[in-house]
Specification:
The protein has 293 residues and is of the alpha+beta class. Helices cover 55% and strands 18% of the residues. It has a 5-stranded antiparallel sheet with strand order 4-3-2-1-5. Strands 6-8-7 form a 3-stranded antiparallel sheet.
């Protein structure tokens, strides 16, 4: 019976000790909660102020969102450090920064690609090498830019497919911005027979291209005899039109079809390859009339 009373006394003393510790820790906990509320209020105030500022300077939505995230992360990291020093007085800021530094090295090695894409996304958003709606090409990928985030860029191909491209790829490799200007130059090759008059052919092609709707009349149309082909004199036909993929395909279709009709109407031959077959042994020719009898 005495052992039971002793155990009960130990439990009682432990409970009282825990209660006293909790009561002594309560002011510190209240201060930490107050600091947390203040941090939340400051974060909201700064976010609203930055939204107003970004609206005045016409900052892009994606870039504004990025800066908002950076501001929030910075505020909350500082707030957590302050709360940690309040709750654990022995855990000084220098010790916390040491732990954070060592942790960041380990995390950096583990998530190298993630941080690489994140930093590349920040630089892309700041430099703006291309914008939403631009048609770009990088390596074997091409499409319209639909969205730029801090990690990746979403492209929409002309066939409707969406491509999610890591920002590091766009940052480290050459990117062709096809729609950076409103106009682009197009070149097609056109062959005429060796027996045709070169100057006449050049004149027919140029007059035809000059009268087409999709061709820019304000820029020079260039028609050059380019090379001696296997069975033709090859002309290089160059003109300017819109820069979007649809405008380029429509203009190329119109030019090729119109030049073909014009050469046919002018009696100019567009040759195709001829082949002569030589057999080692004479071929036996059968008379179909003899077989029918």
């Amino acid at each position: 019976m005495d052992s039971i009373w002793k155990a009960a006394g130990i439990v009682k003393d432990s409970t009282i000790s825990l209660g006293e510790s909790a009561l002594s820790f309560l002011p510190t906990l209240v201060i930490a909660v107050v600091v947390l509320i203040i941090i939340s209020i400051i974060s909201r105030i700064l976010n609203k102020a930055f939204i107003k500022f970004s609206g005045k300077v016409n900052l892009r939505d994606s870039l504004s969102e990025l800066f908002n995230k950076i501001i929030n992360i910075t505020i909350w990291v500082l707030g957590i450090l302050i709360i940690a020093t309040i709750i654990f007085p022995d855990f000084t800021p220098s010790k916390i920064l040491t732990v954070v530094g060592l942790s960041s090295i380990a995390i950096g090695f583990a998530f190298k690609d993630v941080f690489e894409n994140f930093l590349a996304g920040i630089l892309i958003l700041l430099r703006e090498p291309f914008q939403l709606g631009d048609f770009i090409e990088c390596e074997d990928l091409e499409g319209f830019v639909e969205e730029i985030t801090v990690r990746d860029t979403n492209l929409r191909k002309t066939d409707g497919q969406r491509i999610v491209v890591p920002n590091a790829m766009l940052f480290k490799n050459p990117v062709h911005v096809r729609t950076d200007k409103d106009e682009r130059r197009i070149t097609v090759m056109c062959g005429v027979a060796y027996g045709e008059d070169v100057d006449k052919c050049r004149k027919v092609i140029k007059e035809t291209v000059e009268n087409l709707d999709t061709v820019n009349k304000n820029k020079e149309i260039q028609i050059f005899a380019q090379a001696f082909g296997a069975s033709s004199i090859d002309f290089e036909v160059t003109w300017w039109t819109g820069s979007s993929p649809l405008e380029i395909r429509k203009s190329r279709d119109e030019v090729v079809a119109a030049v073909k009709r014009a050469l046919d109407d002018a009696g100019i031959e567009i040759p195709f390859p001829y082949r002569t077959l030589t057999f080692k042994e004479p071929l036996k020719v059968e008379n179909n009339e003899d077989q029918s009898e």
